[in-house]
Amino acid sequence: DTEVTQTPKHLVMGMTNKKSLKCEQHMGHRAMYWYKQKAKKPPELMFVYSYEKLSINESVPSRFSPECPNSSLLNLHLHALQPEDSALYLCASSQVSDRGMYGYTFGSGTRLTVV
Amino acid sequence: AQKVTQAQTEISVVEKEDVTLDCVYETRDTTYYLFWYKQPPSGELVFLIRRNSFDEQNEISGRYSWNFQKSTSSFNFTITASQVVDSAVYFCALSEPNSNDYKLSFGAGTTVTVRA
Q: pLDDT tens for residues B8-67?
């Protein structure tokens, strides 16, 4: 299995809703990431989990709440989002070693629309 | 400061033409990694190549080739005999594990359109 699986593929939510994005990998990767990508822009890092611990939070608003229940799963909980949060949310994973990252793999993303 | 610069915003070619995408990076680390990704209209990021800073060997994979030159901090990508399916946004990215953990810093991307 060499994939990162993200669900759902599309999500429309209201500004008062609570929803979650899910990401799963079975490659034994110990680093997992959330990126946000606006239209016609490159992906921007939001969070990094390394060995199930949050290692990087790129000053993301608290309405985005990541969770890493185990080494294969990564969630992104969404609450009280704004229309400007509409974007493609990409999950990625990679192996970690003293020699750097290997196998940096992206999922196909969740296209989120906030109405 | 921009760590990865892709100066070409859009490139349009006719099928079978060659396309070269430029990527210039900036880092003070001696150990770093460079990547190219393809993002077709469907949205997923497809990994194309990873190169570490100690390996300046150029690489060819089918119609794709990469030219890594540390002297000019460039990691250019060429598609030979382009096809319509090559139409996508191509991103160059940099990882600096010593100073920047596991973050990938992306360039702005180059949109390639291949016309039949």
A: 999 999 999 999 999 999 999 888 889 999 999 888 889 898 888 888 778 888 999 999
Q: pLDDT tens for residues A56-93?
A: 899 999 999 999 999 999 999 999 999 999 999 999 99
Nearest alpha carbon to residue B21 among B6, B34, B35, B31: B6
CA A95 vs CA A30, A46, A63, A102, A103: distances in Å: 6, 18, 28, 5, 6
Selected residues 15-74 of chain A with any CB under 8 Å from a CB in chain B: 31, 33, 40-45, 48, 50, 55-56
Report the length, in residues, of chain B.
116
* CB distance B9 to B68 below 8 Å: no
Q: Tokens 């100073």 appear where? A: B99
Residue B21 to residue B110: CA distance in whole angstroms:
7
Give the chain A residue nearest B45 (alpha carbons): A106
Sequence-ordered list of residues with C-beta below 8 angstroms from that of B81, at least 6 positions apart, any chain: B16, B17, B18, B63
The mean of the pLDDT values for chain A is 92
Q: How far apart are CA A35 and CA B49, in angstroms?
A: 20
> Cis before residue B40, ω within 30 degrees of 0?
no
Q: Are B92 and B106 in contact (CB under 8 A)?
A: yes
The two tokens of residue A63 are 């309405």
Pick the closest to residue A53 from A63, A66, A44 (CA basis).
Answer: A66
Closest residue, chain B, to A101 (C-alpha): B102
